[in-house]
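Hi all, a correction to my earlier message: I attached the wrong file for Rubrerythrin family protein. Here's the right sequence:
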Amino acid sequence: IADIFMKNKETVLREMMLNELKITPEEFENPVKLGFLMSLYLIIGGLLPLIPFIISLFIRIPFYTSLLSSMAIMMASLGIFGSMATKYTGLSKLRGAIEQIGTGLIALIGSYVAGLLLAHFITIPPGLGY
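and the right structure:
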């Protein structure tokens, strides 16, 4: 029976997808649609943390207040996007949110440390910084 079953590659692939990997063919959406959604998430996710700094251009807000507000917005948006992504990952909403926030915090800390290190090598002309 196994020899007969293994002759049809399409049947073997479908069987592996359904029973071993727990993937149904209906889960595969249009890649163009998924690419568009991903780019939309990246644009929104990139613009949200800039809101406090944009507001500080019009209203005098201390830099560190804008920075902390930006970090809070970033963590909230990562949590929301992480829980939304569980539709595709199969994780619980809480775990998806925590993983996204954790990954974002690692990226945030790495970027901040890189900025501190670069500040020792690159000088900013007076008037451009806070």
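Sorry for the mix-up. The chain has a mean pLDDT of 84.
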